[in-house]
Amino acid sequence: MCSYNGETFVAEQLDSIERQSHHAWTLVVSDDGSKDGTLAIFNQYADRWGSDRLSVVSGPQKGFVANFLSLTCRTDIQADYFAWCDQDDIWDDEKLQVAVDWLRS
């Protein structure tokens, strides 16, 4: 997930990720220099979920395209699959499971 000043919506998105029926996921957030309460919200969820489930890194602060690209190019993220989201998305509870099932078929 990439974020920038998303405090209005980001908790709803995080809640929708937490409700996923597919439980084998981790969330890496690239925050692009938020000046509102976005980072505090991420920290609350990281405290609840644990740092193995949610980590926040600093984005390049050059806009959303550069932010997503910087996250895509990180070599320290180990994953079989990636599911991109914006800070104001709300995922269906089956989103990840449907995607993983399709990719495995």
Describe the structure.
With 105 residues, the chain is an alpha/beta fold. It has helices at 10-18, 38-49, 64-72, 95-104; strands at residues 2-3, 27-31, 54-58. Helix 1 links the parallel strand 1 (2-3) and strand 2 (27-31). The two termini are 26 Å apart.
Short description:
By secondary structure, this protein is of the alpha/beta class. The chain is built from 4 helices and 3 strands; from the N terminus they run E-H-E-H-E-H-H.
What is the element layout, followed by pairings?
Blueprint lengths: L1 E2 L6 H9 L8 E5 L6 H12 L4 E5 L5 H9 L22 H10 L1
Parallel strand pairs: 1-2, 2-3
Protein name: Glycosyltransferase
Keywords: Cell inner membrane, Cell membrane, Membrane
Organism: Pseudomonas lactucae
List keywords for this structure.
alpha/beta, 105 residues, 3-stranded parallel sheet
Proportion in helices: 25-40%
Number of strands: 3
State the oligomer.
Answer: single chain
Class computed from helices, strands and strand pairing: alpha/beta
The figure for the number of domains is: 1
Spatial order of strands in the largest sheet = 1-2-3
Output the CATH topology: Spore Coat Polysaccharide Biosynthesis Protein SpsA, Chain A
CATH-defined superfamily = Spore Coat Polysaccharide Biosynthesis Protein SpsA, Chain A
Main β-sheet description: 3 strands, parallel
Query: Uncertain runs with pLDDT below 50, 5 residues or more?
Result: none
- The end-to-end span amounts to 26 Å
Question: Which CATH top level class fits?
Answer: Alpha Beta
Mean pLDDT: 97
Q: What is the correct CATH architecture? A: Alpha-Beta Complex
Tell me the Rg in angstroms.
13 Å
What is the helix/strand order?
A: EHEHEHH
